[in-house]
Amino acid sequence: MSTSLRPVRSAPASELSPDLLLKMHSLMVKARVLEERLIQMYKQGDGYFWIGGPGEEAFNVPLGLLIHKGQGPHYDYCHFHYRQSATLLAMGADPIDAMRQMKNTATDPYSGGRNFVGHYSIRKWNVVPVSSPIEVQYSVAPGTAIANKRAGGRGITIVTGGDAGTAEGDFATCLIWASRPANPLPMLIVVTNNKWGISTPYQGQHGEKRISDRGKAFGIESKTIDGNDPEVSYRELSAAMEYARSERKPFLLEAVLSRLYGHSSASGANRINDEADCITGFERRLEERGLLTRQQMDEMRASFAAELLAAHKQVKEEPQPEAKSIYDHVFAERDLVRGES
What CATH topology corresponds to 38-315? Predict the structure, then answer.
């Protein structure tokens, strides 16, 4: 890791419970196996395009576990980008639904088979529809944060995006609206820094030492952390979210992490071996602490692989959307306009 990307040292903290560590590990492995299955589906012709987050599990799983999910402004609003599969799994999503979106089946609960993989939308959990245009979620997120603040309580708005997208005006818009002295907003603003903008390396594009430094100009509490360490991620996310919940102010969190299969299928989606693998490092620690054996970890991965292969076979038999449904969900349905359930 280069000096310019070195995370800020975390304050000493008590160890997380063994049960939580094992839960995070299980979700991280399942999320990785899911992404590898989605890549396999693309390469087999069971999908038109793949983009996802293998390598980000150590950050995205803790994030999902800490979200206060529900519907309405008393719960957390989630403005995600397309590398958030591990977060959705940690929130309780069924991995078969990601495959349905990859295959564009009519059974896809996120878009009815009409959007790319990883473009989630879950009204009952306040997961705002993921959009393909880069980083527009940063300029949309202050709207739900205003709703959170007006409603009172502890609900916050969480927005995630990548390092390259911080060059967009939407990111500056987010920082400005989140930090206005007259009305600061309860937001967790996340930048997952995988050090690449498609094929452009981070080092030649950013004059600041850390992206989190940009929050200082707006008086926003900010920090850079090691997003490849799930224990650090859980502790730092918990602290940042508690700050936003209790102070009703924004927090900017930059997580430095890895990108293990390239940007997307457009670049081949092949395994990159010179990036740190967060699961490998975490498993080494779990084994050293006597929480899991290598055999147990291998058996867990094999079990998830078999489960998701069976789900893939099921999805292959499910129907594609009919032509008449092409305009469904484009505009607000009449019952929603009327305020009906």
Answer: Rossmann fold (3.40.50)
Instruction: Check the CA dihedral 205-208-213-215 and report its sign.
Output: negative
Q: Of 171, 176, 208, 217, which is closest to residue 191 (Cα–Cα)? A: 171
Residue type for position 38: L
- Rounded distance between C-alpha atoms, residue 92 and residue 269, angstroms: 26
> Rounded distance, CA 164 to CA 196, Å?
7
Interval 249-283: pLDDT, tens:
999 999 999 999 999 999 899 999 999 999 999 99
Q: Which of 178, 186, 185, 162 is nearest to 59 (CA)?
A: 162
pLDDT score at 336: 57
d(CA 8, CA 192): 15
pLDDT in tens, 71-126: 999 999 999 999 999 999 999 999 999 999 999 999 999 999 999 999 999 999 99
- Interatomic CA distance for residues 57 and 317, integer angstroms: 30
Domain chopping of the chain, boundaries: 38-315
Strand extents, DSSP E, the chain: 77-79, 157-162, 187-193, 196-197, 200-201, 221-226, 251-256
Distances (CA, A) of 193 to 3, 119, 248, 263: 14, 20, 25, 13
Distance between CA 44 and CA 38 in Å, rounded? 10
